Amino acid sequence: MVFPIAKAYTQAMRLFYALTFDEQTLSRLSSIQDSLVPLLEKGRKSAKHNLHLTLSFLGNQEPRLLPLFKEIVAALPNTPINLQFSHLGRFTKSGGDVIWLGIQRNVELLHLQSMLVEHLIKSRVPISDTSFAAHVTLFRNARIAELPSFSPFSCTSQAIRLMLSHQVENVLVYTPLASNFLLEN
Question: Which superfamily does CATH assign the domain made up of 14-181 to?
Answer without folding.
Answer: Cyclic phosphodiesterase (3.90.1140.10)
